[in-house]
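[audit] Reproducing an earlier prediction to check determinism. Same input, same settings, fresh worker. If the tokens differ from the archived copy the diff job will pick it up downstream; this log only records the rerun itself.
[audit] input (88 residues):
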Amino acid sequence: MKQTWIKVLAGKLAAVAALLLFLALVPAAAAGTLPLWAVLVLGTLGVLLLNAGCGALLPPAQEVQPVARAAQPVHTVPLRVVRGGRAA
């Protein structure tokens, strides 16, 4: 249980760090304070960090099971229009 909690916390931290990197990277690239090669390298690292962070939040493939729903009949309620134009 503790391992799952730590893994989720690390994933959330990695995702937030990647988003903060993008938040600082875009204005720096637009202003021209970073060279193009640095923007591309940091952008690639940010995408990889975001992918790793979001991947840590997903459950393992063997734990994912489709939810089986029982077929329930749909009950329709007959409505009739009464005086005033509203359904009763």
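[audit] rerun output stored. Observation attached for the diff report: Residues 12 and 26 are 21 Å apart (CA to CA).
[audit] end
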